[in-house]
Amino acid sequence: MGFTLFGHYFNVADAITLCCGLGFTLFGYDSAMFSGILTNDYFLAKFNNPGSTLQAHITATFDLGCFFGALFTLWVGNRRGRKTMIMIGCLIHTLGGVLQCSAFSVEHLIVGRAVAGIGNGFITVTIPIWQSETCEAFIRGRLMAIQLSIVTGGGALASWINFAMRYVNSDASWRFVMAFQCVFALSCFSMVPFLPESPRWLVSKRRNEEAQKVIAQLLSLPIDDEKVVAEQVDIQIHVEHEEELQRTMKWRDLFKDDKLQGLKRILLGAGSQLFQQFGGINVILYYLASVFQNSIGMSHTMALILSGVNSINLFLSACVSSLFVDTFGRKKMMFYGYFTQGICYTMVAVGLGIGTTNSSKLAVAFMFIYYTSFGLTNNVTAWVYPAEIGSQVHRTLVAGTATATNWISNYIVVLITPIGIANIGWRFYIIFAVFNFSFLPLIYFYYVETARFTLEQIDEIFEEDYCRRKGIEYFPRSRISDTTVEKDEPETIEHEMVEKMV
């Protein structure tokens, strides 16, 4: 199964990646577009030159909407399925885009930002789960890295459209920028109905035959192929085991130290997103042109050009990360990424604090290095890790909590940034240098490696850890390696799994 687009044939797995990429392009575009709009004279004049506090509220309302959208997904996401939640999110985001580009008052604009954010909350919770549940373990991180490089590509596109619109002498210079986000939302929406649902979600809903058909499509194999049967059996074994453990569980049981280790996995997933936001990416992403113009004193044109160039730098760095994300490992990427980001923020503060022309150039250089480091590391880890770390029965809960954490942290950072820069100047950047360095011991001591393990094997890592700590003998339910998962495993393992079920 597959389809042809612009003369290129896409198999099912490729098509899902493309669709997820369009959804994440929307995320990247909307996150970056206000960087240039906030320096647009026609936009500022239309809304009576809003001060730094009002600008912060207009910009950050999008993130607040994302937070509530993510929370709502926690409630209904697992019941409605991955595809339905993505489609609803795309439609809501499109409505928000229409409200924004047609705004004639601050209130109207803020409502549009909030509505778009709610839709984006649906999308950013569900897409990583859908992708992780429909791809093979040895390329899961790479596919997510590709998606997130597309996010940065959306941000780069927003920067350059803002630059191009600088030469349009009317309100269209900012209304077009806001309207263009709808293209990505509608493109993603139009693809989803033709793609399969997550086989793991289907198994959890006792739709095992459908799940087996989807696995066959994803692997491009006949439905009765031994590898397809073994994969479906493996998923079914783990889902049934987790449901058996969960059957007597209540919400308060998440706080218990049991085999599922639900609370630990929620905290690890949410922590990865909190680290990303308080690592300071959106201090730069949302306000880069404004920082160049107001903190460093560049002209409007040069500020937009450098913002566009830096967004390309982020895009290329994110593309490179796809080459090593599944071999280098998530934990190492997080550790070295935040170490480098801490150095960058320290040097930005030093450069702006000295206040000379050369020191300002130093600050700009380290903003570029920060973008490079973030693109190579934490651009991908914060999103792929929560989608991997949760058990099947808790995956939506873990990913939703992590994404909600991302957006509420994002909201706080975006809200305080223009106010902080206006009031304490270069000292504001020291705060984020400290944050980045403070994450290092937490990552080193508490985070678990997930690269190249199947989702079922990750479940077993946590269960084995629990048994080891409690002195209980552990019996794995399926294939699990002490190191990595290879693409092609011995057929005898598959035979053994099928025989066990029979």
List keywords for this structure.
single chain; 502 residues; Growth Hormone, Chain: A; two-stranded antiparallel sheet; 23 helices; 77% helix; 2% strand; disordered C terminus
Structure write-up:
The structure is a single chain. This protein is mostly helical. It has one domain: MFS general substrate transporter like domains (Growth Hormone, Chain: A, Up-down Bundle). It has 23 helices and two strands. It has a two-stranded antiparallel sheet with strand order 1-2. It is globular, with a radius of gyration of 23 Å. The two termini are 29 Å apart.
CATH architecture identity: Up-down Bundle
How many strands in all?
2
Spell out the CATH superfamily. MFS general substrate transporter like domains
Evaluate the radius of gyration: 23 Å
Q: What number of structural domains do the residues give?
A: 1
Which regions are unreliable across 5 or more consecutive residues at pLDDT < 50?
5-9, 479-502
What assembly state would you assign to the polypeptide chains in this entry? single chain
> How are strands sequenced across the largest beta sheet?
1-2
User: How many helices does DSSP assign?
Assistant: 23
CATH topology title: Growth Hormone, Chain: A
- From the helix content, strand content and strand pairing, which structural class follows? mainly alpha
Q: What's the CATH first level?
A: Mainly Alpha
Mean pLDDT: 82
Residues in β-strands, percent = under 5%
Order of helices and strands: EEHHHHHHHHHHHHHHHHHHHHHHH
Distance between the termini: 29 Å
Helical content band: over 70%
Could you give a short account of the major beta sheet? 2 strands, antiparallel
Describe the global form: globular
